[in-house]
Amino acid sequence: MRVLMPRLRNGLAALCLALLPLAAPAQPRDSGPPDSPILTLDSERLITESAAGQAIDRDLADKSAALAAENRRIEAELTAEERDLTERRASLTPEEFRAEATAFDEKVQTIRTEQDAKLRALQEEANEARRDIMRAADPVLVGLMQEAGAAIIMEKANVLASLQATDITDLAISRLDAAMSDPPGNSGGFDLGVPIPGRDAAQEATPPDPNPDPAPTAPPPDPTAVPAPQSDPAAPPAPQPGAPGRTDP
């Protein structure tokens, strides 16, 4: 049982470290982007240092900690069950013990598969949250390009050398935070599914309209439309087959 779910624990520990929120530096005064045909951006900083990114980090870290606690509880229960089976072995016939041991091993494998699936779902949620932030930042980046008269924004990590003046990361973070604190269309804007400081607090403080306008009826779907392909990030390798240790008769 000591090696029941080591890969789960290691994966959760790595995920917790990856989801730890970073302290956001003080944002400079918004003086606008530089006049440059090419701008650079550190997208990792945009994700991790924005208010939305830090809120998502906290949400995912809480879920990761809950899953880790659940795994520890399950491991303790299975360890006790295995110990009980071992202690009762002397009172069982070889056939009875073999049947119970086989059933226990199958139970362990089922639980391991279920917990691995939960971990993969949490990792996919983290990946999707990062994509959500970049989608929310797209209009902000387009606006900065238009202000600068730029034709392209390059990922800073892929640039061999550049002047610091072309880096718009701090400005993009500031603009993104402002856009998500005051989204257009009241309840519109960028809803990433987690509380965003400033935005959700203001929305909760606003009383609902007693006479709201009726929601428009959406047109029926076009049967000829082709759905857009969904990105499928690489999932972690499947768990290796094998059962926890037991003593055969």
Order of helices and strands: HEHHHEHH
What is the β-strand count? 2
* Ends distance: 18 Å
Largest sheet, strands/sense/barrel: 2 strands, parallel
Global outline: rod-shaped
Instruction: Quote the beta fraction.
Output: under 5%
The average pLDDT value, as a whole number, equals 75
Determine Rg (CA atoms, Å). 26 Å
Strand numbers in spatial order across the main sheet: 1-2
Uncertain residue segments: 1-9, 11-28, 185-191, 194-207, 215-249
Q: How much helix is in the residues?
A: 40-55%
Briefly note the structural class of the backbone. mainly alpha
What is the number of helical segments per DSSP (H or I, 4+ residues)? 6
Pfam family, one: OmpH
Region (Disordered): 182-249
Keywords: Signal
Biased composition (Pro residues): 207-226
Secondary-structure blueprint of this entry?
Layout: H1 6-19, E1 38-41, H2 43-49, H3 51-87, H4 94-148, E2 152-155, H5 169-181, H6 199-205
Parallel strand pairs: 1-2
Helix pairs in contact: 1-3, 1-4, 2-3, 2-5, 3-4, 4-5
Give a structural overview.
- Residues 182-249 are annotated as: Disordered.
- Keywords: Signal.
- It holds the Pfam family OmpH.
- The longest helix has 55 residues, at 94-148.
- By secondary structure, the protein is mostly helical.
- It is built from 6 helices and 2 strands.
- Helix content is 53%, strand content 3%.
- The chain has a domain at 8-23 and 33-187.
- The model is unreliable at 1-9, 11-28, 185-191, 194-207 and 215-249 (pLDDT under 50).
- The protein has a two-stranded parallel ribbon with strand order 1-2.
- Helix 1 (6-19) runs antiparallel to helix 3, helix 2 (43-49) packs parallel to helix 5 and helix 4 (94-148) crosses helix 5.
